[in-house]
Amino acid sequence: MSRPPIVILTALDLEYQAVQEKLVDPRPRRHPQGTRFEVGRLAGGRCPIVLAHVGKGNQAAAVLAERAINTFAPAALLFVGVAGALHSHVALGDVVVATHVYAFHGGTSEDDGFKSRPRVWETPHVVDQIARHIDRDGSWKRGLSAHDRGPEVHFGPIAAGEVVLNSKVSVHALWIREHYNDAQAVEMEGAGVAQAAHLNRSLPVVVVRGISDRADGTKEDTDRERWQQRAVANAAAFAVSLAEELSAEAQDDDRRTTETRRPTMPETIRNVAKGNARVGVQAGTVYGGIRITPEPVPPTDLAEALAGFRTRLQRARAGGHLDDDTYTAAEAELTVADKALESDTPQSRGTLTLALKKLRGLIGDVAELAAELAIIIGLAQGLS
């Protein structure tokens, strides 16, 4: 079963390039109306990615998000880019993942002043939970350049409008502070993307922003110091880890849905054995030959189960069921799982489960391996 794609949208060229660098064999795909998408896969993974440049502003983002949704039927939609911080605890280079997106320009003008009419879109609970687990695991930082300290991830509302905010005392700055005081960052596209996703059966959407300035009048200084490049690199690293997991989860959901729809046996047959006779088969209509084999005994030791799985993974590669790139990526996740199993902490158990889920995404097209790995994941989740 193929994995559903994840659409990633960006507004700036440097944002686009930061994501594009993480794709393997990206190929252009032209929409009839001229929009050019690039379709590829994440390096070291199986997640298909659709990448597009939408330009600045919520309106353009909404239109092209709708176009991407209708063309590719994605499992989720991510917007990746830079933003300005609205609170002092959010540092330059940090990543903000939206729990809510505010459209802060909505309101009505009356004789006694401008009254806010807020619009808000909330990130789905299951997506928020996955994003928080990725943050706790910390593996998304592996490919980042060394800085004085690693970027932190903040979860909170993001305010989206139609202006570049570069002041602490402007009308827009005071308006946001008064009506959207819990917003962690400010940007210009999240509301449009969230609205497009909402109108398409509430497609999951996540806004991931790297902090490149403080929205306080110092934007030119931080841009010269190349904080945009550093911030978007961090946001892209987190976003592709999230995309990989979202795609794997969507594939699992599709598989479970398919299994529940399988037809059941239309009748129940009861065979009664008397004397020394034994019942060999109980079935309705039997087609072809019958072979009776003992039920395999599920593994109970996780370390032994991983060792056995590694052996079968090698056989699958030798038999041509896995290509070299997929095998290498799968071996890397197995190594992460083995190291995590050596410790017994909540963090190591989380790392173990995440590595196994990534591994599941890599070998999902090989039914026998996927079935065995599902049992192993069950063992891992059962660790206390």
From TrEMBL:
Protein species of origin: Streptosporangium sandarakinum
A single cellular component GO annotation: cytosol
Listed GO MF terms: 8-oxo-7,8-dihydrodeoxyguanosine triphosphate pyrophosphatase activity; adenosylhomocysteine nucleosidase activity; methylthioadenosine nucleosidase activity
Domain Nucleoside phosphorylase span(s) in chain numbering: 5-242
PANTHER family, per the entry: 5'-METHYLTHIOADENOSINE/S-ADENOSYLHOMOCYSTEINE NUCLEOSIDASE, 5'-METHYLTHIOADENOSINE_S-ADENOSYLHOMOCYSTEINE NUCLEOSIDASE
Stretches the record annotates as Disordered: 246-266
Stretches with biased composition (Basic and acidic residues): 253-264
Superkingdom of the source species: Bacteria
GO biological process per UniProt: L-methionine salvage from S-adenosylmethionine; nucleoside metabolic process
Presence of keyword Hydrolase: yes
EC class of the enzyme, as a word: hydrolase
Record's protein name: 8-oxo-dGTP diphosphatase
Pfam families, sorted: PNP_UDP_1
Presence of the UniProt keyword Phosphoprotein in the record: no
Keyword annotations from UniProtKB, A to Z: Hydrolase
Its EC number(s): 3.6.1.55
